[in-house]
Design brief:
The chain is mostly helical. The protein has 2 domains: about 90 residues, RNA polymerase sigma factor, region 2, helix turn helix motif (Rna Polymerase Sigma Factor, Chain: A, Orthogonal Bundle); about 80 residues, Arc Repressor Mutant, subunit A, CATH 1.10.10. Helix content is about 75%, strand content about 0%. It is built from 10 helices and no strands. Helix 1 packs across helix 2 and helix 8 packs across helix 9.
Length: about 200
């Protein structure tokens, strides 16, 4: 008897997968690979790394299929796995801890949605417009902090001002952006980082 895998719901596919059904695994792969790849690619901007992530995830899905504990949909489970792999890659590249944490916060806030369902690009553009309207000195300090990833002390040395002044300017800029766009400061910084990654 040929099982019509395409007609099976997630729960049925997961049950079959746990029993070592390769057909169920193939159906899960076919349903999810494309969106997972787009998701990883939008975050990493690296085709090979994105493909490697998916290969690891699906190999793990198959080899540990009998012990899977999936409490949500299979797609949410896989998107979460992609998110964790992306964060590991960022940490391995030694991205500044502060920005890694902000990025993690952003992804955690949206862990049940694909990037396509988030108005992130439009928000990034709106944030950039607001940044350009900041007072000149505040804008310069903020961009060195959030776009060039300089520390407060590095900015202070570069502009010949105190690190307290740098901190105050950055905080004031975040306050303006937070109120202008009704978003938490962490998300504002993460959106800026994602926009920079996309444009590189």
């Amino acid at each position: 008897m040929i099982v019509p895998y395409r007609t099976l719901a997630d729960a049925e596919l997961i049950t079959s997968l746990k029993q070592g059904d390769h057909g169920a695994f193939t159906e899960i792969y076919d349903r999810n690979w494309g969106m997972l790849y787009i998701h990883a690619l939008k975050l990493l901007h690296n085709e090979e790394e994105s493909k490697d992530i998916l290969q690891e995830i699906f190999i793990g899905l198959w080899t540990r299929s009998d012990t899977l504990d999936i409490k949500s949909s299979i797609s949410n489970y896989l998107f979460s796995a992609v998110r964790n792999k992306v964060l590991n890659i960022i940490r391995d590249k030694k991205t500044r801890t502060t920005y890694t944490d902000l990025f993690a916060l952003y992804l955690d806030d949206h862990c049940n949605a694909t990037v396509d369902n988030i108005d992130e690009r439009e928000l990034a553009e709106a944030i950039e417009v607001t940044i350009q309207l900041l007072p000149d000195k505040m804008k310069e300090v903020f961009e060195l902090s959030r776009k060039s990833y300089l520390s407060n002390q590095e900015i202070a040395d570069k502009l010949n001002i105190s690190d307290k002044t740098v901190k105050k300017q950055v905080n004031n800029a975040l306050k303006i952006l937070r109120h202008a766009h009704n978003r938490p400061a962490g998300m504002i910084s993460a959106i800026i980082m994602l926009s920079i990654l996309r444009n590189h």
